[in-house]
Amino acid sequence: MQKTPQSNKLHKNRLITVPNFCLLMIAILTIMKIVPYGVYYNHTTSMPLGFYWVHKHKFTPKQNQLVLVCLTNKEYRELAISRQYLPTSNNCDGVEPMLKRIAGISGDALLATPLGITINGRLISNTRILNQDGLLRKMSSRLQVGIIPKGYYLVLGDSPMSFDSRYYGLVPESNIIATAYKL
């Protein structure tokens, strides 16, 4: 097949596009490390799949806000990795940060019932504490009921199968590393 000037031009444009795209991706990834903004891809079923805009800054988490959370409790971090709930990462003591929703803040009354978690007497849907995960492996809960202390948060996923505060307990504010917004 004979090349036309038009096909040569298209071919050259494609060759230029691939390297430029690679350079653009490197620049974006570099900027994400430098500036307090970035993009996070949620690949778990705990929260809706997709891309989220994240902002790493000093903030006071609010009810129902989406956040990235580090799981720093060694026992639960190792459980998350061994059961492949989360992949390893260079962040958060070796495990990928988790996208969760803040369901309870300091001063809220937290109760675990057979139907699920209640905050200030209001039942939160899909929050029943399960005895087994999706592969029928035993699950235990460290969640302490009562008034949520200052500086701690209840973080939950939207899925009833989410690995969240129902199992690893309340999260200190220092473990919340960014706010997140669905793109």
Describe the model.
It is a single chain. 23% of the residues lie in helices and 27% in strands. It has 183 residues and is α+β, with helices and mostly antiparallel strands. It folds into 2 domains: 35 residues; 147 residues, Ribbon (Umud Fragment, subunit A), CATH 2.10.109. The strands form 2 sheets. Strands 1-2-11-3-4-9-10 form a 7-stranded antiparallel beta sheet. The chain has a 4-stranded antiparallel beta sheet with strand order 7-6-5-8, with no helix packed on it. A hairpin with a 2-residue loop joins strand 5 and strand 6. It is globular and about 60 Å long. The termini are far apart. The model has no long low-confidence stretch (mean pLDDT 85).
What does the secondary structure layout of this molecule look like, with pairings?
Layout: H1 5-34, E1 37-42, E2 50-55, E3 66-69, H2 74-82, E4 98-104, E5 109-113, E6 116-119, E7 122-123, E8 146-147, E9 152-156, H3 165-168, E10 171-172, E11 176-182
Antiparallel strand pairs: 1-2, 2-11, 3-4, 3-11, 4-9, 5-6, 5-8, 6-7, 9-10
Which features would summarize this protein structure in a list?
2 domains, single chain, 183 residues, Umud Fragment, subunit A, 3 helices, 23% helix, 11 strands, seven-stranded antiparallel beta sheet, 27% strand, alpha+beta
